[in-house]
Amino acid sequence: MRNTWRGYNTSFATCEKAKNNDMSANDKSNTPSTAATGSAPASNFIRHIIEQDLQSGKHNGRVQTRFPPEPNGYLHIGHAKSICLNFGVAQSNHGQCNLRFDDTNPAKESQEFINSIKADIEWLGFQWSGEVRFASSYFDSLHDFAVQLINSGKAYVCSLSPDEAREYRGTLTSPGKDSPYRDRSIEENLDLFARMRAGEFPDGAHSLRAKIDMAAPNINLRDPVLYRIRHVEHHQTGNKWPIYPMYDYAHCISDAMECITHSLCTLEFEDHRPLYEWILESLDRDSLHAASDSAAPAADYVLPRQIEFARLNINYTVMSKRKLKELVTDGHVNGWDDPRMPTISGLRRRGYTAESIRNFCERAGVARSAGVVEVAMLEHSIREDLDAAAPRAMCVLRPLKVTLTNYPDDKIETLVLPSHPKDESMGKREIPFAKELYIDASDFEEIPPPKYKRLSPGVEVRLRGGYVIRCDEVIKDASGMPVELLCSYDPETLGVNPQGRKVAGVIHWVPAQQALDVEVRIYDRLFNKENPDDKNIADYKECLNPESLVVLQGCKAEPSLANAAPESSFQFEREGYFCIDRYDSNAEKIVFNRTVTLRDSWAKMSS
Ligand code: ATP
Ligand code: MG
Please, are residues 1 and 18 in contact by the beta-carbon 8 Å criterion? Predict the structure, then answer.
């Protein structure tokens, strides 16, 4: 039995145990599945902590998590890991997960980002509990709690300039100095804070700071700023507030107000945890309870616990919103959902399925120490998914005309091919076969290298699902490039091997008259260095791969694809997995994005 389930759902654990008492840790067959992931999640240290808390009754049997994005960019695959973790642990423990926008920095935030984040989470297959939350909807309470801290002598208004404040803060190796404003009276602090709130002062004139310890080894505890003056309009609260709370201050109180039990965040917040705890411990528990969602009596009110895990890093990728934004605004990519971006919307547009992303996050695991995951593992996840789910089709990316000289001029046969070699339920597709065809230019060599398995003069190959053909003559243009192959076909070879001759190989093809003219976008990695953030590289943009996008026009696809829906995926035989672009495809022109090639380096590495 999986650890995650033991203890909380005792009845389940007992009955499963009775049925099957030798289940190995890897056996997923008897473990209940979560709605979104479809398979049971592996245990990890966070699930273990939650399980212990459930056992000890610490949170009265509740599991309440939250996903707290700042709406200052689109979500990336790193966020997907946090989403899968937060929603996943809630789901498998009969808990809830909130979606809360941490919108305390309005200058960088926008409604566009809010909309995209909600859409991405839903697309990933998760549903937040109740309404979407906003830290900004707690601004009144956050303000009241700040007044409470001033009243209890735990916060003061500081009037050092930002430069002076930096100087007073000290360094990692030297302690800070007390601000000369640290001992202002409570009355003076209340008055100044009220005037900050009333908008009397310009940006940066004052700040509200916690009174903790300027000599603390942890710099986060050196009287951190709780509120700053910012005369900026907010996307939710308009011009109501000229002061905004800092993230560290707003986050822990928002968690407490939403009765979050486990506040999961990435490792860079580890040093902020003492501040998280200091703020909550410094506030009056009853007033926190009163401001919270809690329906339970005050005596049962428990403060949230922050737990850190390692952020997801992937090689050949950058994963900071700031850099992703720069790629967009400087035009290195075509928007946040460019299929080369590691954003959820980019991956979706590239042809990744939600399931493949969830599986990838599960496979990447949740650890306490930082590491880098191979991008090949992400690619493996989508191949695995599409190998089973994507119908097969033929598409010629670089068409070379083939004329079958011995095929009757007006004859058209209809060949019937399975849509999937291993899954009959996916049905069949029809492909017309006629005198003029296209094959891929890369499947022909006039002077073939040794062991060449494709077409060359005098050599026979099989057309996938069709006849065996032989190249008799090459027609070239003025520059010597082959423009047409005159071939003959063997009418006895449909589904039958020729007697006494060996065929070099099998190549794909499409009928020339009936093929669809399509655009194919060949995507490659956006960066050509394994670690674009390497400190020896002056600027990560130096590592941009100039060939990350190659657009092929005039590709020829089999006619069965004519009515395929946007976002549907296919395996183009011998080429890779491709999906129909959700925005740029229309009735006139189908646009395919290459999701991934066929060759799976991760499966090989890990086997
Ligand atoms: P970035 O550093 O990429 O700009 P962020 O941490 O500022 O991202 P937020 O919107 O604050 O972005 O993140 C929302 C949640 O997602 C946070 O809890 C954060 O810890 C988590 N998160 C962000 N990046 C990753 C990552 N690479 N791996 C796992 N979780 C992440
Ligand atoms: Mg952040």
Answer: no
